[in-house]
Amino acid sequence: MNASLESWLETARAAADAAAAVHVDAAGSVLADHARQKGTADFVSEVDEAAQRAALAVIHTRHPDHLVLAEEDDAPPALPTDGTPLWVVDPLDGTTNFLHGHPMHVASVGLAVGGAFVVGAVTCGPTGERWWAAQGMGAFKAPDATSSAQRITTSSPQSMARALIGTGFPFRDLEYLDVYMNQFLRVIRSTAGARRGGAAALDLCYVAEGRFDGFWEQRLSPWDFAAGVAIIREAGGMVTRVDGTEVTIDAGSILAGANPAFTAELKALLDG
Known about the structure:
The protein is an alpha+beta fold. The protein folds into two domains: 3-152, Fructose-1,6-Bisphosphatase, Chain A, domain 1; 160-271, D-Maltodextrin-Binding Protein, domain 2 (3-Layer(aba) Sandwich), CATH 3.40.190. It is built from seven helices and 14 strands. It has helices at 3-26, 46-62, 95-99, 177-190, 200-209, 222-234, 260-271; strands at 36-39, 42-44, 67-70, 86-93, 106-113, 116-123, 130-134, 138-142, 150-152, 164-167, 193-196, 214-220, 238-240, 252-257. It has a seven-stranded mixed sheet. A five-stranded mixed sheet has the order 11-10-12-14-13, with helices on both faces. Strands 1-2 form a two-stranded antiparallel sheet. A hairpin with a 2-residue loop joins strand 1 and strand 2. Helix 1 (3-26) packs antiparallel against helix 2 (46-62), helix 4 crosses helix 7 (260-271) and helix 5 (200-209) runs parallel beside helix 6 (222-234). The longest helix has 24 residues, at 3-26. It is globular, with a radius of gyration of 17 Å. The protein starts with a helix and ends with a helix.
């Protein structure tokens, strides 16, 4: 692994850990009534903002010449066209879960270079779990801060009927709801089940380590998926848009699967 990737990966892990530490410190002290609403069922709290400051402090200190796209930015930067590294940060994915004391929330830090997702790190404060990957290095998980990391790989589903699929509801973009509900019905009729946890970055890590065989969501922001795309691909999985096109740094749908064949089968099921 080249020196730049190694340095970037350490930064991603440190930034995700710094944000997750804010989650842990604030757990139980910030409730749903304390958050302001950005959109339909979409909230931001002082913890999101403090976690973002913590993550960005790590990134700016180590890589002051890099660009950052973070969820709570007031003025997102123009996407680079010259190969400048772009950090993509979700300081608290699963804010609604956090505000209700639900443990499925994480900090997610990804890095895109020239449009490629080359580094990802996700840290879950409540459980201590950490996932990370860098291009060409493989994907890894540590169950907590003191345990050794283990290389992770996606599952080997033998049939769609035995597969467990993760998903996310299109709560921000209700125009996708009818399409999504038809997809959801096809999935639950044809698989072992579907699960919606409320933190897409965590769901994508579950695909990478084989807890889920696949995942889809109709619309996600780049900070929701940047780290997860890098981690799944290094774990041996596949990530595209739901229509099968390439994932870019722009907001859009996400389809992930344990391997190309299973991803194609899941796409066909969603297509009906």
